[in-house]
Amino acid sequence: MTAVMVQIRALELADLSAIESIEQRAYPTPWSRSMFASELAKPTSICLGAFEGQDLVGYVVNSRYVDAWHIMNVAVDPEFQQRGIATRLLERLFELTRDDERRGYTLEVRVSNMGAISLYEKLGFDARGVRRGYYTDNREDALIMWRDAGRSASRNG
User: Fold this and answer.
1) Could you read off the pLDDT of 66-122 as tens digits, one per residue?
2) Domain assignment present for 125
3) Is 108 a known active-site residue?
4) Burial class of residue 88, CB neighbours in 10 A (0-12, 13-18, 19+)
5) 0.70 exceeded by pTM
6) Domain interval for residue 66
């Protein structure tokens, strides 16, 4: 696949329809529109979109907790996957939060999603545990991954 030129900017409520469209095509148990609206409205959230022209092609939803930035949702339009968009979104998130030395980053990912796990490892995340039966559609386990504050890349990658 060829790389895509994208602009990364903060998501807005006006983007909800495009977000919902990608979410429904990307995941077997998509978030609801109200879940996204709630995160977009939180002052402790950072929600970024990758746009090709005016079209949303991917996004990341991140919330600030006491001890960590929790990456809650990452999705790329299936037609645009494997082109570096998720990497660009996460790298931009890391840039925006780099001055917050106290917090690392955490996320959950399906244990079967080897592509995402590989991406997160390349970005400096390590597996730290498992949430049993986390996903409601099939009771699949979630791998809990962490990236410590100040870390820029994986030792392996």
Assistant:
1) 889 999 999 999 999 999 999 999 999 999 998 876 789 999 999 999 999 999 999
2) yes
3) yes
4) buried
5) yes
6) 7-147
pLDDT of residue 2: 58
- Of the candidates 59, 120, 134, 140, the residue annotated as catalytic is 120
Give the CATH number for residue 96.
Answer: 3.40.630.30
Q: Is residue 89 part of a domain?
A: yes
- CA-to-CA distance for 61 and 144, rounded, in angstroms? 17
Helix (H) or strand (E) holding 105: strand 104-110
Report the number of distinct structural domains present in the chain.
Answer: 1
Residue 130 lies in a domain: yes
Q: Which of the following is catalytic: 108, 121, 134, 140?
A: 108
Clarify whether 27 is annotated catalytic. Answer: no
